Amino acid sequence: MTARDGTRQLPRTPLLDWSSFAGPRRLAGVPSIDDMAASCLTTSGRAAIYLALLQLRLDPGSLVLVPTYHCPTMVAPVILAGLRVAYFGIGATGLPQLGTIADATAAHAKAMLVSHYFGHPRSLAEVRQWCDARQIALIEDCAHCYFGSAGERPVGAWGDFATASLSKFFPVPEGGVLASASRPIVAPKLTPQGLRVELKSWTDVLESAVTYGRLAGVGWVLARIFAIKNRINRSRAAAAQDESTAPPNMMLACDMGRITRRPASTAVVLKRLLPHGRIITRRRSNYAVYAQYFRQVDGAYPLYPEAAADAVPYVFPLWVDDADRVYQNLRSLALPVFRWDRIWPDTPLLAGDVGPSWSRHVLQLLCHQDLSDADVTRTAVATLALLSAERRPTGSGTG
Q1: Handedness of CA 227, 232, 234, 237 (dihedral sign)
Q2: CATH superfamily of this structure's domain 277-391
Q3: Does the pLDDT at position 239 exceed 80?
Q4: Are 164 and 44 in contact (CB under 8 A)?
């Protein structure tokens, strides 16, 4: 698979390979969501948020506090659960700015969704105390932090419930976790996926692997099978007519249709089989490579130049002044970079809140375990070249 410039395209998600089974099962001193006293698997992180809200048994129309810096899939579950959303600002550390929550709003709030951004978990001691004083349930969003410690506690242990995403850390097409360190989880009534979805799930895992050159020894056989499948699918797609002319809908884009289904067996099996050691060490190593390249750069700076010793990064967050131009160029090169630039339409502007500026200026450079040092270097060098082009005077040729 190649990008528009002819170079090899880099994977945006973890991949299944023989190396996925290598390394220690656990790393000493590195907790994970799996350590929670109670847990159940879901189809996604958004499904876990939705099911966490149902566990709280809130009255219809109850108010839920959500950060201004968010992925739309953090807001959609609240609305789908028949609840109302109110927003709070965040500070430079990613922690809630509790002062942005009006007293009247806090008095009516029943739950609060707090995220650990980018794989840099923070102590939620102050947030926990604030919620307890107002009898507000705390949902700890660990979508970016499957592993690590959040200050004095393991990730996930601050919340009444914690939610996590498997697909961000494991080579699965989907999957999430609802967990709690302190409360029982009433087993949700989830419907089976069905044989067709199960087969597609395993096919997607294997096809992604062989597309990027993994599973040496059997990949060439699988590649031929998938080539035939894709030719059939392309011919069917060409014959089909899409009659939909409606503009994109935020709720529809969040794909909430299967949140009450059981997770596919890919998530169940691979989560159980794959060791954590390689996932943790490779992500930390890739983050360190990015950090070396962006120590001192004009027009950009890392939000967190170094990952904390107890963190297991999801991405390398980079503030870029001319983010629109740099991001679009990186996307055209099919490099593993994204940003949260789609926020819910009614998200307010709050004094002192960094959320809106992060949505535009913070690029998230992926550092998952199936990117090599060379892959990370290529992404970093391309970013630096674009930043350098920004500083180069117009018309400065050698003509």
Answers
A1: negative
A2: Aspartate Aminotransferase, domain 1 (3.90.1150.10)
A3: no
A4: no
